[in-house]
Structure formats: C-alpha cells, structure tokens
Design goal:
Order of helices and strands: HHH
Shape: globular
Radius of gyration: 12 Å
Helix content: 55-70%
Structural class: mainly alpha
Number of helices: 3
Strand content: under 5%
Oligomer: single chain
Number of strands: 0
C-alpha cells in the first residue's frame, strides 16, 4: 500500500511477505535504490524482497543481456 504522499505505508508489510516482495520489485522498477523494512517487517519479508529482486535481475539479464546493477 502507498500513503497519500506516494511513499510506501505501514500496510505494505501488514499485507504479508509475498505481497511485500512484489511491491519491492515494483518499487525497484520505479527507480528505488534502497528498499528495506521497519515495523512489522520480519525476516520472511526481507527474504521475499531478495527473491523478487533476484528474479527481476535474472529476467533482465535474459531479456537484455545485462544486469540491473550499474
């Protein structure tokens, strides 16, 4: 979930780890360079973020022959 200012809200973590991971993938695609958690995020949330970002990087490699990293 996103707050009125467009920033991720606390409900993002409350939605569950897998949803949080998918949101993180979208945030990265939108240009976020630092993604993490705070209240209500647990290790399974961070693991889901890592899985999603690795998958996105792998898909980018296959599609473009490059990585997401500079």
């Amino acid at each position: 979930a996103v707050g009125p200012d467009g920033a991720p809200s606390a409900e993002s973590a409350a939605a569950g780890a897998e949803r949080f991971g998918r949101l993180a993938r979208q945030w990265a695609a939108d240009g976020a360079v630092l993604i993490g958690g705070c209240c209500r995020t647990r290790p399974d949330h961070i693991a889901a973020v890592a899985r999603e970002l690795r998958a996105a990087e792998e898909e980018g490699r296959h599609r473009h022959g490059t990585t997401l990293r500079p």
